[in-house]
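Recall that a protein's primary structure is simply its ordered list of amino acids. Everything else, from secondary elements to tertiary packing, is in principle encoded there. The following example makes that idea concrete.
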Amino acid sequence: FPSHDNNKINYSSFDPQHVEPSLDYLLNKSREAIDVTIEKYKTIEALNASQTIEHVLFPMEEADDRVSRLWAYFSHINAVNNNDVVTAAFEVCSKKLTEYGLEVGQNKKLYRLYEMIKQSTLWDDASEAQRKSIENAIRGFKFSGIDLEGDEQHLFNQTSKRISELKIKISQNVLSCEDSFVYHTEDIKDL
């Protein structure tokens, strides 16, 4: 994972071999945060005893933010320093992120937690922004196939993975075309 100094990323420390283990570590930490939160707030009574929505969701959001920051960093590296090693790591990690997104988006216990927040006393004190965030999360679960079962869910997951693979391929093709384009002129008027 890149070294940070006062929130500035030190790009000189980048090594593509570190991205996959860093991503695996952060995804596991995010899974742990989800599991702990679900276990801690598995009843409406536990939610009602909590101080705020932020108190309930912050550990999961913080863990997810770490994944997002790593991916933003690596996506930037992929865009500006694309080579075979970076491309291979990018493809592997993209697949892991797609699978993780489907896993979280189809986590019925997590979905139930968000639904329970709407039924708890926390909802009564929630700001408009917090309510919108919770409603968007619930909508996200539905877009991720939370209501699907069996063959339908399997088909949804396979289709999602295939779309992700195609997006990666298109992105890599564009980067390859950009890298191979050269326009040579010795006449300043041509510029």
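Confidence is low (pLDDT under 50) at residues 2-6. The first strand starts at residue 4 and ends at 5.
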